[in-house]
Amino acid sequence: MSCEGSGRGGGARASANMAASLDDDLELNNQDYYSLLNVRKEATLEELKASYRRLCMLYHPDKHRDIELKSQAEQLFNQVRQAYEVLSDEHSRAIYDIFGKKGLEVEGWEVVERKRTPAEIREEYERLQREREERRLQQRTNPKGTISVGVDATDLFDRYDEDFEEMPGGGFPHIEINRMHISQSIEAPLTNSDTAVLSGSLSTHNGNGGGNINMTIRRVTSAKGWGEVEFGAGDILGPLIGLKMFRNITPRSFLTAQGGLQFSPRGLRPSCSLMTARHLDQNTMGYLQWRWGPNSAMTTSLVRDTKSSHFTLALQFGVPHSYLMMSYHYKFQDDDQTKVKGSVKTGWFGTVLEYGAERKISRHSVLSATVSVGVPQGVTLKLKLARSSQTYLFPIHLTDQLLPSAVFYATVGPLLAYMAIHRLVVIPYTKAQKEEELELQRKSSATDIAKKKQEAESAVLLMQESVRRIIEVEESKMGLIILNAWYGKFVSETSHKQEKAKVIDVTVPLQCLVKDSKLILTESSKAGLPGFYDPCVGEEKSLKLLYQFRGVMHQVISADTDPLRIPKQSHRIEPDS
């Protein structure tokens, strides 16, 4: 590794070119230097030196006379030395923490100038990421779409059976689609600051429908604001010309202004609106909006969004509607990003109570169901599926009255359907998809894993003499002896019979890390430790140890990335167990 040429010109250009490929290759080409040295990410220079000296004594080529062992020791010694050189240098360590090992392999160290501090390096990386996103935007149209299908199912609950007994098919409720709406938009980046947006929509309701098409040109004028001009045409309302502007007033507040002219058959219909918002604290926003036109109104709202909840309070005075609305979402801290929500809205139109749930069902898909109960609206079940940038809505109107049976079925029906579909369709699909991805990952990393396995086996051979001395010292004082240690994926008694354990014996590598009757492993993947490798790429792994301390047996199982410190009283195996 060479640090020469760090002050050469053209660093920004080299950085920009490299940033486009760094993130794609980072995981495959990166070696965890912290795990190799068995130190914390926040390790001090003294901690790095202590670990480096220990591993140098173990792997120094001059300690081995056998030609093959000497060659293997030289390779491992060079890896340890490279890890120490990178992490002990503040500049190269900052680059490694951000870019990984690949960032250190750039010829001439042209990623950033040598004189920059770690904080400046991180700022440079964030700037390169923004530029990369801009280049990505120029290469895609970012399509967005919404499809809404309204279903009239009031015949399920509101029908009069005696009126249909003599009609053909009268025994079956009549369910029909009474409205549909389709909208789509695409973006076409023109420059880094200009974007064209083309959008259109079609709607039908009880046999009558219409559509419109819009063209918007948006320009980012500065880091504080942007503006856009909109042109539209439709078969009902006529041509439209609009202007919208956004501006950050202060770091904690912004203003949006919008105006438009609608050329309708009834004449020119102008409209405008102003909205200002301010951060009241880290999680709370306050909004104030004024609209003038066909639906004039003044609206104020308070929105508080935290990691575990989302709360909204809104009040509107206007023509034709005035209302008070309050909603609350609770966010579960699980992998499926589950949310439960409820809201109440009351005004001149009546009162509506809504409650529902939302859950992520796949990597790109979110499913939600909401029950709306209102006077005089009745009961409606709203189903929503959001997949990437496409949204599918299915509002199902069940009854115009407040019927307990409709509320019950609207609540329980989707829940039972989801549980059945999730168990019979979603779980098998995601499991098959995950297995396919794991297989692809294994194939792509097979060569690298074979190399790591060979290096681990060589390291174990080089450790034998040191381990023998460590065991002699520990036995003399009834210290810490690693009896058995296994690393990988273990199979429980409840697992499938055809599933096999994928583990490797790491007794020798762990005994080699014992010092003064203590073994300390840091918070990182143990696959990077000397003498270790990954026996099951992409799968959850753990470390299982059986050890003896002061003549007493101990046992512990630790997750792959969890820190571990032994011996501990809680690991002790009682004689009667």
Automatic annotation (TrEMBL):
Taking the first listed entry, what is the main subcellular location of this protein, grouped into a coarse class? mitochondrion
J domain location is 32-100
Task: Report one GO cellular component.
Answer: mitochondrial outer membrane
Give an example GO biological process. Answer: cristae formation
Query: What membrane topology term does the record carry?
Result: Peripheral membrane protein
Q: Where in the cell is it found?
A: Mitochondrion outer membrane
Query: What Pfam families does UniProt report for this protein, alphabetically?
Result: DnaJ, DnaJ-like_C11_C, DNAJC11_beta-barrel
Q: Which UniProt keywords apply?
A: Acetylation, Chaperone, Coiled coil, Membrane, Mitochondrion, Mitochondrion outer membrane, Phosphoprotein
Keyword Mitochondrion on entry = yes
InterPro entries (UniProt xref): DnaJ-like_C11_C (IPR024586), DnaJ_domain (IPR001623), DnaJ_domain_CS (IPR018253), DNAJC11-like_beta-barrel (IPR055225), J_dom_sf (IPR036869), Mito_inner_membrane_organizer (IPR052243)
Q: Which SUPFAM superfamilies match?
A: Chaperone J-domain (SSF46565)
Is Ribosomal protein one of the keywords? no
Which purpose does this protein serve, as stated in its record?
A: Required for mitochondrial inner membrane organization. Seems to function through its association with the MICOS complex and the mitochondrial outer membrane sorting assembly machinery (SAM) complex.
What family is it from? Belongs to the DNAJC11 family.
According to UniProt, the name of this protein is DnaJ homolog subfamily C member 11
Gene name?
dnajc11b
